TrEMBL record:
Protein known as: C1q-related factor-like isoform X2
A GO CC term assigned to this protein in UniProt: extracellular region
Pfam families (alphabetical): C1q
Location in or out of the cell: Secreted
Amino acid sequence: MEAIFKWTFFMACLQQMFEQVTPIHIDLTPNFFMEAATTEVTITCVPDGTGVLAKEILLIEISKNGETPIVNVQPPSKLNYGPNDFKHFEAQGFINNSYVADSYLYLRIKYPTKDDAGAYTCVMSYLDSAGLLKQDRDKADLILHKGDNSSIEDKLDTLQKSLENLLDRVQEVERANQMLIAENRNQSQQLQDLREKVRLSVAFSAAVNQEKNIVSGDTIVFTDVMLNDGQGYNETTGIFTAPVAGLYAFHLVLEIGQGGAVGEVFLNVAGKDMVKMYTQDKDFGDQGAVSVVSKLNKGDAAKAVVHQAAGITPRILSERLCVFSGVLIRS
């Protein structure tokens, strides 16, 4: 009799132990949230120990505050939403009755509000090993954390000030960058100007190609142009005009002759008679030469001007006996 009593007591304890096993488990991640700060809450429902208790899972569902279920999953992965705004939720579920421990139901609440706080329940309906319909559930609370509004405002104020300081620094860097760009542009232009100066070649040489009489005050025109780099010499007027400022060298060779002719010619540079050449013909002509080095501004002129022409028919001779040349030494 005593043995029967002990066996009955053992079986009652064993049955009570199995009845206390919860074959479904709910988990909230996180289990509290702040409005406008928490982007997502995930509710997870998974079987716990159903390998012993469940032979076949029929349904797993999630509800809130005992109301109409938000979502459920039926084998193998059919999701059914309740009358809620399911755009606010995102669910995923799967029931594997070959190995029930692999079954699950996930519910993601996107940007939760105060209305989402409350008690959530996971319910699992299944057939046990004896083929009997069973239902088990597990609960968890999702808590709204209000926080300290004044603290949040202080943090936002601090963040705004930090952003303003950062903006000021960005603007300072931008101004410095613009100054560097302008300076770089100026240096690039100076370098370009220097390259232009280095590349610039100014030189000319021209001769008289036809004998002609001269009189006082004439500018001698050298029409046979042999060189005119920089296009400073004008073969129509006989005048060289400096295309750039710089140091120039000029050379003048003249042969004046016939009939005891006397010639005095100035090399006029920038409006000044810089050097005079004198010739006096005795037989067939007399040749003279002068040179000068002078600084010219852009636009200054150089020319050969007859100061005096005397004797019988004074004239300048051709066959390149009379040549006017010039060259830019440096700009």
